[in-house]
Amino acid sequence: MKSRQPSGFDAEESQKLQKVIAASGRGSRRQIEAWIAAGRVAVNGEVAHLGQRVATTDEIVVDGAVIETAAGQKPQVLVLNKAAGLVCSRRDPEGRSTIFEQLPRLYGGRWITVGRLDIQTTGLLLVTNDGALAHRMMHPSTGLDREYAVRVNKKLDDNEIAQLKAGVEIEGETMRFSDVRYYNGSESNFWYHVALLEGRNREVRRLFDSAGCTVSRLKRVRYGPVILPSWLTVGHWSSMHADDLKALYKMLGFAAPRGTAQKVKRSKVAKTSCLIPYPKLDKAIVARR
Fold it and tell me: Which one of 118, 157, 243, 282 is the catalytic residue?
């Protein structure tokens, strides 16, 4: 067991317990507050209480499992151009390769994916060591859409596009694209760019299938304000530039990231920004406040 807080404990160097656990990717702060109230969280062997603050030396346990915290570690975001054939789970029961095998080692925390891509989908995947950031980007209330480039075997007519945007009931769920734009194509290869809000399991493929189309290529090119940079080749990743990271936190209503950054090897140097203006995110943040 780690030592308890000394009498000279500096509150300014501590953090709220729910914030520290959220940063490990276990859940939202509101969920964690409920866990604390239910007695599911312990600090240094004693049941935690709401409002408790912890230091980097404290041992935090949730439901009997010790939490690996990233306290004092500066938040980071990796931009990955995922290759086909990789799964987004940490371990795959079928023994398939995972995206985590190609990420740099992280000490004192863990990498958390912002959403997932199925095994055959390529393109933009964001990975962070900040669970609170990941949770906010994934939560429907934040309103971040996802954009995909899709190659299908037929060209849609206006009625089919209108239906995909209005909504299609598939296996008891109503799914829809928020936007559908034809890009180019000929014969049996036609490219579209589509956007959707929630990104349920295989939602893009299932929507096109409902229109009689077979998807032969699927690539995510944007997640909210973050775009897949053209210079990032398939299978490679890069650390998000410090200026982009600060801007992303500001967009999402977080304080600027602080702490000590770990040095991680970059596969490419970010020569251009990965962010685009995203006015509707500003409205969502204002509404939440």
Answer: 118
How does pLDDT run across 31-82, given as a tens digit for each residue? 899 999 999 999 988 999 998 988 766 788 899 888 766 555 678 899 999 9
Report the alpha-carbon distance of residue 137 to residue 116 in Å, rounded. 12
Structure tokens at 156: 């849609």
Nearest to 151 by CA among 208, 211, 223: 208
What kind of fold does domain 77-141+226-288 have according to CATH? Alpha-Beta Plaits (3.30.70)
Type of residue at 241? H
pLDDT digits (tens, 9 = 90+) for 205-230: 999 999 999 999 999 999 999 999 99
Pairing of strands 77-82, 237-239: antiparallel
Q: How far apart are CA 54 and CA 48, in angstroms?
A: 10
Kindly list the distances between the CA atom of residue 195 and the CA atoms of 124, 171, 179, in Å, as whole numbers in the listed order: 14, 21, 5
The fold of 145-223 is Pseudouridine synthase (3.30.2350)
pTM: 0.76
Asked about 243 being catalytic, the answer comes back as no
Which of 129, 71, 132, 131 lies closest to 100, judged by CA?
129
- Residue 88's H or E segment, with its range, is none
Neighbouring-strand partners of residue 15: 54
